[in-house]
Specification:
- With 192 residues, this protein is mostly beta strands.
- It has two helices and ten strands.
- Strands 1, 5, 6, 7, 8, 9 and 10 form a seven-stranded antiparallel beta sheet that branches.
- A hairpin with a 2-residue loop joins strand 6 and strand 7.
- The longest helix has 13 residues.
- The two termini are 30 Å apart.
- The relative contact order is 0.17.
């Protein structure tokens, strides 16, 4: 049940988010702003769902004639990786196919994967926490994009449900280094 997953993830608004997700899936050409659509106009769903700790993503490299051909990767969202610490991978998400490169993508951390069936259609999904880019361009020194977790005005994390097909690739973060030494006592889970 969606309500059970909402409880497990401590995201009480998850059932409402799923209703909005379904509205978008069933009405892909609707020009309305999703936040302006009342829940009473959205399909309701609180039935069986299947939760997964990872997905297997297959993709083609930019040079198809290169060695190796098609590639694949596992993207994880595990509350207890190898029965120990949590492991939540970050991803690039296609959000605007009309723009090239990073300008057409957003970055998110996967909190869980799940799927459900509505009107004989199966929807593979991910619950994600969005990240914002710090600037409109990559960093001058590293040529990499700098991101930080996105939050709403009330400081709550910006969480969403996305279709797994919108995931482009796993993202690997590198910390922004300062001029101070990092404490050797810093636990590994303090990253990002």
């Amino acid at each position: 049940m969606v309500s059970a997953l909402a409880f497990e993830l401590s995201i009480p608004q998850l059932p409402n988010m799923l209703c909005h997700f379904l509205f978008v899936q069933l009405n892909p050409n609707d020009p309305c702003d999703l936040l302006q659509i009342p829940l009473v106009n959205c399909p309701q769903y609180d039935e069986r769902i299947s939760v997964f700790n990872s997905v297997f993503k297959v993709f083609a490299p930019s040079n198809l004639s290169g060695i190796g051909g098609m590639h694949h990767e596992h993207i994880h969202a595990c509350p207890a990786w190898r029965k120990e610490h949590p492991h939540y991978d970050c991803i690039f998400v296609n959000t605007n196919l009309d723009l090239e490169g990073m300008r057409g993508m957003d970055v998110a951390r996967v909190l869980t994967f799940f799927s459900f069936t509505y009107r004989a259609e199966t929807y593979p999904c991910a619950v994600v926490q969005w990240f914002n880019t710090l600037r409109e361009l990559p960093d001058d020194n590293t040529s990499m994009w700098m991101v930080q977790p996105a939050h709403h005005a009330n400081n709550a994390p910006h969480i969403a449900i996305i279709h797994v097909d919108s995931i482009y690739h796993a993202a690997h973060f590198i910390p922004i280094y300062g001029s101070q030494f990092v404490s050797p006592n810093l636990p590994a889970l303090s990253d990002i």
